[in-house]
Every structure is written in structure tokens, then in C-alpha cells.
Amino acid sequence: MTPDNGAFATAAYVLAAIVYLVYVLSLKLRLRRLRERMIALDAPVRPRTDRAEGA
Amino acid sequence: MTSGQPSVSIPPQRDPLVGVALLGVALVYVRALLFTPIEARQGAAQKIMYIHATSAFIALYVAFVLLAIASALYLWLKDEKLDRVAESAAEVGLCFTTVVLLTGPIWGKTIWGAWWTWDARLTATLFLWFIILAYLLLRGAVEERGRRARYSAVLGILASFLVPFIHLSVYLFRTLHPMPILLKPSAPSLPNEMLVTFLSAFAAFTLLFFALLRLRYRIATLRDLVADREQERA
Known about the structure:
The structure holds two protein chains of two kinds.
Chain A: H1 6-42
Chain B: H1 16-34, H2 49-77, H3 80-111, H4 120-141, H5 145-160, H6 162-172, H7 192-233
Helix pairs in contact in B: 1-7, 2-3, 2-5, 2-7, 3-4, 3-5, 3-7, 4-5, 4-6
């Protein structure tokens, strides 16, 4: 008789999907953070002033 | 070729290859769960094979072999690009091995009645997972780029020695883990419909691996570029 263990298969598929999706998301976030840092570094350096902006 | 700024522009945020690969994996999910027959003796749990075995195959024979080759070539050529390939292969391989170690026990529970058994293949795979984790921790611990690349290349090569051991463990030891059904001298022992699902899963997960590898490589390149710029500014 074929055992009824479909829930185990579903659990494994869901777990695998979670691992892969979380990893993709973590890579996207890391890339975004690095891009922002790089863009900030590429921005022209403004001369420092002791006066607060708008003062 | 040892150092110097990586000559790259800022990589784009969107990467269509990752989206295509995820779509491919989603289609495999649909085919495996809804359109592939249920194996009579094992039941639906046998379908875990389509994600478990393919992830294992890609982690062991693609990711960690690539890690070994890139590491060995780095020690020879001292090209930072090779170090980045090795680093990326190790991290993506760790992700695939995590899936293997999570889905395997679920399958094992239905077939063996136990979540885990300390047999040669399972133990060696867990050991490899810890070594790759140590490899990534080592990379985070050493700041000087050349030293970090050298140390991790050596560890990466040592870790990959476990791959043939894991492959042969089912032949060398008495183990509960099933023998290979595809990667063996004789013809694959799967009915056609299951074989098509298995090969589709293999193609989709291989594409996912290379998409993730490319994305991770871009991150490593950009990280080094940012570090160089910050050093220039300091």
C-alpha cells in the first residue's frame, strides 16, 4: 500500500523554497547596500564647513 | 595581476537571470508536485528527491569542485578574480548544502523512521557544511586581502577532498543512504516521467546556481571596489 506522506514532501519543498528565497533576498540587499555606498563614494566631495546647514 | 582596483562599473540592481532561474524552479515545483506520478512504495515523499538529490549534486560536483579549481588556480596565478569565484562558489554551495541537509531528514523520517542517522554519507556531508561555514568565517576574520585569499584557498582545497569521499561513501561503508540512481555506470533506474522531472529539476537548479554565483561574484567585486575607494579617501 502506498503510504500517505504528502505533507512531508510539501514541507520539504516549502523549506527549500524558503532557504533559496531568503538567500536571494540577502544577496539583493547586500548588493543594494554596496551600490549605495559606492554611489556615495563617487559623489563629489563637498568642502567641510563648521556652520550647520541653514544657519 | 595581484591587486589594484577591479576595473568594473557599478553593477545594476536588477538581474534578470535570477528571476528566470527562480521561475524555472517554480515550474519544476509545479511539475514535480502536481504532474509527476507518486512512487508506489515510498509515496509522495519520494518527490523530495527532485530537490534533495539535484541540490546535492550541484553543491558537491559543481560548487565545491569549482571552489577547489578556483582556489588552486588562485594559489598559482594570484588573480583576485579567482579568489572571488572561489568565495562565491563556497557561499552558494553552502546554501545548496543547507537545502540538502534540511530536506534529507524529512525524506529519511518517512523511509527510515528516523530524522537523522550518523552514517558515513550524512555525517560527511554535515562535516563538509561546517568546513564551508568555517571557510566563510575565516574570510570574514582576516582583513588583509592577499592573506585572506591564500588562507581560504588552502582551506577550500582541503574541504573539496571530502567530495570524492562523500560520493564513494555509499560504496565503502554500510549505509542507509540509497545508492546513486543517475550517476552510476549502468543506465538510470527511473521511469521516464520521473526522469524528465529529475532532469528538468537538474537544469533549473543548475541555472539557479549560476545565477546566484554571478550575483555573489558581483557583490564580491563591488565590495573590493568600495574598500579600495574608502582606502583612497582615508
